[in-house]
Amino acid sequence: MKDQTVTDRSASRRTIIRGLAGGTALALAGMPGRVLADAKRPLIGMIPKYTSDPYFTAIRQGAEAACKECGFDLVFDGPANQDVTAQTNIVDRMIRQKVDALSICASDPTALAPAAKRAASKGIKVSTWDSDIDASGRTVFLNQSDFGAMGQTIADMMARATDGGKGDFLLVTNSFTSSNMNAWRTAIKSYAAKKYPDMHIKAELTGDADLEKSKNITLNYLRANPTTRGVIVIDGIAAVGAAEAVDQLGLRGKVPVAGIGVPSNIRPYVKSGTVTEAVLWNPVDLGYGAIYISKAQLEGTLDPKKGFVESGRLGQMKFVSDDVILLGPPTVFTKENIDSFNF
Amino acid sequence: MTALDVAAARSGRRRQWAARPEFAPLAFLILLAAVLAVTTPAFLAVDNLVSIVAQVAVVGTVALACNTVILAGEIDVSTGSLLAACSLVFGAVANSVGGVMLPALAAIAAGAVVGCANGLLVTVGRIPSIIATLGTLLMLRGIMLVKAAVGVISLPDASRALGLDFQLGVPVPVLILFGVYLAAELFMRNTTLGRDVMAIGSNGRAARFIGLPIGRVKLLCFTLTGMSCGLAAGVFFGQIGQLQATAATGFELRVIAAVVLGGTSITGGRGSVVAPVLGAILVGVILNALTLNAVPETFEQFILGLLILVAISLDAIRHRVAARRA
Q: Which of A104, A189, B36, B233 is most buried as measured by Cβ atoms within 10 A of its Cβ?
């Protein structure tokens, strides 16, 4: 009974605040006041891995657009840096905030699962995107790209840049605890083993999502291993660090860098030719699609047997297994097209 | 001079050398280099050695100034965020005016303001330095997250000279590190305020009784540390070319690690001017060795932590031995 009162009070306070915000917005826009009366707009909590990255700003942009279309309210909050504990705390805070759905990009697959389960036990619909958590903690995972397709694209790009990909290569990643990056590493290696048997990944180093460190380790390694044919990067910051190292050693055009890259970071290096090609998905689309999954969950229409999820301007996103949905094919950035992507 | 130094002066010259605070880290560095020269062929190459120093130049430059704060018995943990914030200032001026001089001056001025604020909080506000500088650390990082998280901040090529250029065949970061080291030696040996630093750190009460300007000295040390962050920002940003909101996170701990590993006592009053450079190079050599042997840097933190514990324990043991002799 007591709980009930508290809920009502906080709910009505939320309505008032939203009403005020909505009212201000409407007064400014000069439109009829329909939103004012709407007390039951679902609240979606979205948690990125961290907020200090243009990549997650683009995710937010897509999520906000989708929320506008669906009539949802969005709370977008994550730790400033990669920090599993802080992420767990944010999940708990959002449970107290009484969100209707949670959409998570996890820093660590196992550490976040208990918090996600707590949310699910309160009736909150949990889904994940970009970096999954243990399947027990969520209903469905939105995969930004098929890991296999991504691995193939990266190995092919490196082979194109080095006349068939023969020789020794260096791979630079963020850390060995990131689930998506680990899946790409495995995919690159298993595909290359079949298609490019002479492509040897001699070393795998970690840059810890730190530009200075990514640059230093690549520079030190390349200097000590001059026979290295190319650098495969599977992290957006590692891409910049590796490209910078190659430039500083005067190896542009000799040791190509290719792999995962975020256009806003790598643009100058793609244009100069240090990075021959880079691949990613469109994070705006990813944030957008994630909200449509929450929508399907809230409406109760999420059904693997149907085979797809309706997602606004993206059309239908397909189920690739019972609990994994695929965003679509990866996007390749080259010297020619990179200027058309602004995230 | 501490009791230990006096005791050492009485015995032979060899013993005197071994008692110097930088002896243990230097011996360890030479031993490590000897082992690496045998096990890791690429290590001894001149290019590799020069690039190790260039890569630790930013940490070393800030640590040289932070060393004076620690010698004076205080601590500054704000350098990581301050380096990032100064880089932001450096970038803003470089992108509107261009060049290297003006951005560097602006960054040094910004660093001086924050460093001075740290010093005032500690001396006038009487806030323990670890708390005062922790506050600045968090506030400045907060500003970074607001100002730098949305887009990518990069430097025009011409403004990257402090990080990338060579003079007389030596990388500019190395020259800057050497210049700051010389300035630190001059300050600590040849100025009254500089010589007061050690006295205040080793015995604050005695320093007060004989009327040393404790507040002024500490304020100066904090301000110098802020200015060193401004100078290092030009090198740091120049070396990486792009600034993230999280840039230099954890840098403050690497600075303190360099100071302590180099042989300066964390409790103040005992150490040397060269300690931070030794410590920074030691850390750089270890990271370099890991990469050259293609070991992922997963063990880096463990190794650094272990070294710091060993260094501090040795220092404590030496203190106890010295106390027994005296």
A: B233
Out of B51, B150, B242, whose CB is closest to A265?
B242
Whether A30 is in a domain gets the answer: no
- Token couple for A89: 């705390």
Chain A residue numbers with beta carbons less than 8 Å from the beta carbon of B239 are 212, 215
Strand arrangement, sheet containing A257-260: A199-206, A167-173, A228-233, A257-260, A275-280, A331-333
**To the nearest 10°, the Cα dihedral for B140, B146, B148, B151?**
180
- Contact check, Cβ <8 Å, B297/A205: yes
Q: Any CB–CB contact under 8 A between A272 and chain B?
A: no
Residue-level length of chain B? 326
Residues A236, A190 share a domain: yes
ipTM comes to 0.85
Structural domain harbouring A180: 147-280
Contact residues, chain A, for B236 at CB < 8 Å: 212
Could you report the per-residue pLDDT of B215-264, keeping only the tens digit for each? 999 999 999 999 999 999 999 999 999 998 889 998 999 999 999 999 99
Q: What is the pLDDT of residues A184-222, one digit of tens each?
A: 999 999 999 999 999 999 999 998 889 999 999 999 999
Q: What pTM value is reported for the model?
A: 0.81
Compare CB distances from A215 to B240, B287, B298 and report the shortest one's residue. Answer: B240
Domains and CATH numbers, chain B: 3-9+24-34+42-325 (1.10.3470)
Alpha helices by DSSP H, A259-326: 263-272, 283-299
* Nearest residue in A to B59, CA atom: A212
* Same-domain check for residues A218 and A198: yes
**Tell me, what CATH number does A257's domain have?**
3.40.50.2300
